[in-house]
Amino acid sequence: MKVGLVQTRTPASHAAALAHVLPLVREAAAGGARLIVTPEGTNILQKDREALLPQLTLLADDPVVNGLRETAKDLGVWIDVGSALVKRDDGKAANRQVLIRPDGTIAATYDKLHMFDVDLPTGETARESATYEPGERAVTADVDGLKLGLTICYDLRFPALYRALALAGAGAMTIPAAFTRPTGEAHWEVLMRARAIETGSYVLAPAQGGFHEDRRGTWGRSLVVEPWGQVVAKLDHDEPGVLLADLDPAAVAKARRAIPALANARTFTGP
Questions:
Q1: Beta carbons of 179 and 188 less than 8 angstroms apart
Q2: Residue 120: pLDDT over 80
Q3: In sequence order, what are the residues at sequence separation of 6 or more whose Cβ sits closer than 8 angstroms to the Cβ of residue 242?
């Protein structure tokens, strides 16, 4: 299966975000991608809660998600919206991944489990939990016989989630992100490779990149890691762009036979 990862610099409004991402999605499809994955916050990026929250809609009404549903149907491809920032039925906000079938229907959704609540050594702070309600369940979904494990950004730092997804049959992990520049420079690639090696899975990591309207800076460097831990495709910059790679399901089985860590793990007591 050929996949296309879309790297964006998402604007602070839905209309501008859709105009930004659609040409990149079409470029990925023109390159032969059957599955196209976009970054976290594909539909809007805005750090200011007071400016963001009034713009959020229910998933069914989100103009970017609906535009991408129409595009998936038009192009006959799978589109995984790495995440859309949306309103929940209870009025709270969610950071939600949305997998769209080639007929434009929604195959699966996943709400980000782990909230990025940190104080970085650089003085930068983040409190995702002040805006978003975390999800409560892990999610897998089938794409043309390849089972995906759906995760988002900060989930990357919690390996137990990826082990659970792999044990549930996932052979490729989606990790769409809007990584900060300090943490991206230090940890982005090494953690992506670690998750691939630990689980014997492909890692698909499309990213936001550059400096945004809301003044945040994101790392970019979207990449695809194969199950043995090698980076097989990478954008070496933070500009918007498209990354294409071929996935071989046999590579998953081969890696897991060579290092059967999923099968060899034991329960233990203590410390």
A1: yes
A2: no
A3: 4, 5, 6, 7, 24, 27, 28, 31
Which DSSP category does 62 fall into? -
Catalytic site positions: 40, 112, 153
Mean pLDDT of all residues belonging to the chain: 97
CATH of the domain at 249: 3.60.110.10
The CA-to-CA distance between both ends of the chain, in Å, stands at 44
Separation between Cα atoms, residue 75 and residue 94, nearest integer Å = 28
Q: Is position 267 within any domain? A: no
Q: Which residues, listed in sequence order, are joined to residue 245 by a DSSP beta bridge?
A: 3
| Domain contains 49 | yes
Write the pLDDT tens digit of every residue in 18-55.
999 999 999 999 999 999 999 999 999 999 999 999 99
Q: How far apart are CA 142 and CA 151, in angstroms?
A: 14
Looking at the structure of the chain, the number of domains it has is: 1
